[in-house]
C-alpha cells in the first residue's frame, strides 16, 4: 500500500486527537459513561456474556491457548475509550493499533503468512461493559491477545480475565502501581498482563522531586481523581515528599462544584498542591481555584497535560509544574499516523504493544496467549548479538527471528525494555507552563530511579 493510501485509510480508522505536545496521561475510569454514540461494526458485541465486573468468574481457557494453524487469520483485540471517559484519547489509540496491524500484514503477516485481524472495541468508560466485551472477544472472536485498556480501573477488571483465559493483555495506558504483578496464572506460572506505559512509582518520585527541590515546599496537600490511578499516584507522591502532607483529598468526576473539595485541599494553607486530575474536571477545578483566591503552587501529574486546556487557561495555569514520561519523537510514526495532531496520549504505546505481540508470536512459533506471554519480554530488550528494529520495521524483525537471531525493539514510545513485571522504566521530564505552553525545564534520566524502584 502506498504511503498516500495508508494515510487515507488511517484517517478513516482513528479519530482526530489533541494537537501540540504528545502528552502521556495516566488512566481514569468512570462507570457507565457511555457517551451516547452508536458503535461501529467492529465495536458491536454478540451475546452470551455475563457482563460481570470481576475477573475470576470461572472463565476457562479457550482455543486461543493453542495455535489455530492452517494459515488462518489471527485475531488480536483492542479496547480503548472511544466514547465516555477519556474519549478524547481513544481514537488515537485505536488508530495506532490499526496502523501497527496494517504494517504487520503489509510485511507478510506472522508465522508464515498469517494475517492479523483487528477486533476493535470501545470501553465506554465502563469496567463492566469492558469485561463483557473482552469475554465476547475471547469466546466468540477467538482473540489471542488484547491491546488496552487505557484506564487502570478497567485494567484491574480485565487482568484476571486475561489470566484465567490465558489471553495476553498489554495495556498502553495503565500506570497504577497495583497492576505491577497482575495477570499471573498460578497453574503454569505465566504472566498474562503487561504494559508499555510506565509504573506510576516513577512519576511519584518525580512529583516529589519537584516539591522537594524545585519548589522547596515545607507543606503540601494532594488532590486526586477518585480511582486507582489517582489514589495510587497521590499516595506514593506523598510518601516521597520530604515536607508535611496536610491533606489527602479525592475528587468525584460526577460533580461540577468543587468548592468544598478545594476548601479541604487548602485547609492549613499548604505551600503546594500535588494534583492528579484530568482535563475535563481539572478545567473546572482550576477555574474555581482561581475564582476562590486560594493561592499555592500546583504540581500536576501528566494527565492534565492537555495543550488545549493550558492554552485556554493560560493566565490561570502560568507557572504550574507538570511531570511527564519522555517518549520517542519518531518522525516515521508521526507521518504514518497522518501528523502529530492524531497522536493522542499513549497512542505510541498502543502501537508498540501491538508490534511486541507480533514479534512474540513469531518467536514463539505459534499464535497463542501463552506463546506471546513467554516471549514478549525477550523481544523488547537488548540481548547479546541482537538486531535492533524500530517503527515500521516489522519485516526486518521477523526476518531476524526467522534466522534465529535475537531482536531488540525500540519503538514509537521509546526503548520499551520490559522488566520482570513486563513493564518499562523510562526517563521523565519536568515541565512548567509558560504563556499557555508546557516547556521542558528539567530532564530526569533513568539513573535517577536506580535503587529507588
Taking the alpha carbons of the first and last residues, their distance comes to: 44 Å
Total count of helical runs of at least 4 residues: 14
Find the count of extended strands (DSSP E, 2+ residues).
16
Shape: globular
CATH level-1 class of the largest domain = Alpha Beta
Helix percent band: 25-40%
Tell me the structural class. Answer: alpha/beta
Q: Just name the CATH architecture of the largest domain.
A: 3-Layer(aba) Sandwich
Q: Which band does the percent of strand residues land in?
A: 15-25%
Query: What is the gyration radius calculated from CA atoms?
Result: 21 Å
The CATH superfamily of the largest domain is Response regulator
Mean pLDDT: 87
Low-pLDDT stretches = 1-70
Main beta sheet, described? Answer: 7 strands, mixed
CATH topology of the largest domain: Rossmann fold
Strand/helix succession? HEHEHEHEEEEHEHEHEHEHHEHHHEHEEE
Strand order of the largest sheet: 9-8-10-11-12-15-16
**Overall number of domains:** 2
Amino acid at each position: 500500500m502506498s504511503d498516500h493510501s495508508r494515510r487515507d485509510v488511517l484517517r478513516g480508522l482513528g479519530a482526530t486527537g489533541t494537537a501540540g505536545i504528545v502528552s502521556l496521561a495516566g488512566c481514569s475510569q468512570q462507570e457507565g459513561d457511555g457517551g451516547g454514540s452508536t458503535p461501529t461494526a467492529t465495536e458491536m458485541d454478540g451475546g452470551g456474556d455475563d457482563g460481570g465486573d470481576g475477573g475470576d468468574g470461572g472463565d476457562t481457557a479457550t482455543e486461543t491457548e493453542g495455535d489455530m494453524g492452517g494459515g488462518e487469520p489471527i485475531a488480536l483485540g483492542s479496547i480503548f475509550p472511544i466514547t465516555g471517559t477519556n474519549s478524547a484519547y481513544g481514537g488515537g489509540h485505536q488508530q495506532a493499533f490499526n496502523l501497527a496491524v496494517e504494517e504487520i500484514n503489509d510485511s507478510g503477516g506472522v508465522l508464515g503468512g498469517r494475517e492479523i485481524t483487528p477486533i476493535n472495541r470501545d470501553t465506554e468508560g465502563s469496567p463492566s461493559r469492558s469485561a463483557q466485551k473482552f469475554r465476547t472477544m475471547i469466546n466468540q472472536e477467538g482473540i489471542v491477545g488484547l491491546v488496552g485498556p487505557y484506564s487502570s480501573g478497567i485494567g484491574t477488571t480485565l487482568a484476571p480475565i486475561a489470566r484465567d483465559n490465558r489471553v495476553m493483555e498489554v495495556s498502553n495506558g495503565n500506570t497504577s502501581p497495583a497492576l505491577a504483578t497482575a495477570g499471573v496464572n498460578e497453574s503454569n506460572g505465566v504472566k498474562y498482563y503487561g504494559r508499555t506505559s510506565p509504573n506510576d512509582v516513577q512519576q511519584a518520585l518525580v512529583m516529589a522531586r519537584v516539591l522537594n527541590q524545585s519548589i522547596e515546599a515545607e507543606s503540601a496537600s494532594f488532590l486526586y481523581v477518585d480511582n486507582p490511578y489517582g489514589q495510587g499516584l497521590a499516595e506514593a507522591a506523598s510518601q516521597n515528599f520530604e515536607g508535611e502532607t496536610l491533606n489527602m483529598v479525592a475528587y468525584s468526576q460526577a460533580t461540577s462544584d468543587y468548592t468544598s473539595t478545594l476548601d479541604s485541599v487548602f485547609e492549613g494553607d499548604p505551600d503546594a498542591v500535588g494534583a492528579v486530575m484530568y482535563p475535563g474536571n481539572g478545567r473546572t477545578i482550576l477555574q474555581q481555584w482561581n475564582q476562590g483566591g486560594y493561592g499555592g503552587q500546583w504540581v500536576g501529574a501528566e494527565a492534565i497535560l492537555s495543550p488545549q486546556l493550558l492554552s485556554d487557561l493560560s493566565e490561570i495555569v502560568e507557572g504550574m509544574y507538570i511531570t511527564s514520561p519522555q517518549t520517542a519523537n519518531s518522525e516515521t510514526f508521526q507521518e504514518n499516523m497522518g501528523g502529530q495532531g492524531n497522536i493522542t496520549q499513549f497512542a505510541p504505546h498502543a502501537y508498540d504493544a501491538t508490534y511486541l505481540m507480533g514479534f512474540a508470536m513469531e518467536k514463539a512459533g505459534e499464535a497463542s496467549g501463552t506463546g506471546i506471554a513467554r516471549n514478549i519480554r525477550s523481544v523488547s530488550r537488548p540481548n547479546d548479538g541482537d538486531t535492533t528494529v524500530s517503527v515500521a520495521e516489522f519485516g526486518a524483525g521477523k526476518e531476524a527471528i526467522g534466522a534465529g537471531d535475537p531482536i531488540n525493539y525500540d519503538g514509537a514510545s521509546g526503548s520499551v525494555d520490559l522488566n520482570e513485571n513486563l513493564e518499562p522504566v523510562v526517563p521523565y521530564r519536568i515541565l512548567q507552563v509558560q504563556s499557555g505552553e508546557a516547556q521542558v525545564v528539567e530532564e530526569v534520566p533513568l539513573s535517577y530511579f536506580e535503587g529507588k524502584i
